[in-house]
Design a protein that fits this description.
112 residues, mainly alpha, 4 helices
């Protein structure tokens, strides 16, 4: 059994346009062609030696990019993400994470 609801009607106005943008995603945009690519130096007779590559619609890729950019902007500008969230964020790296770790370790040692 499935419960179908309209989440768009409960969204604040700033997020409603995002919902409307996603609501017309067509079936063709959700369909991908899977192409098996042989891994370098592997035996072609074994299915385990192939890497599946999904080819999607150009319009789908453009739409995904627009949605990603909009979500990133909302999350960054409204301070929704934690200050310690570094993965998949522009301008942050492993060094930022390590810097906070070292700082926390020094703070813990200074309290002892």
């Amino acid at each position: 059994m499935f419960l179908f609801i309209n989440p768009g009607r409960n969204l604040p106005p700033s997020h409603h346009s995002m919902y409307e943008m996603l609501s017309f995603w067509t079936y063709d945009w959700k369909t991908h062609i899977i192409i098996p690519i042989l891994k370098p130096g592997k035996d072609p007779s074994s299915a385990l030696n192939y890497r599946p590559i999904a080819i999607s619609s150009t319009l789908s890729k453009v739409m995904e990019h627009l949605v990603k950019n909009r979500l990133e902007w909302i999350l960054e500008n409204r301070g929704i993400l934690s200050r310690t969230q570094f993965g998949f964020r522009k301008g942050f790296s492993t060094m930022d994470s390590l810097s906070i770790l070292v700082s926390d370790i020094r703070l813990a040692f200074s309290k002892n």
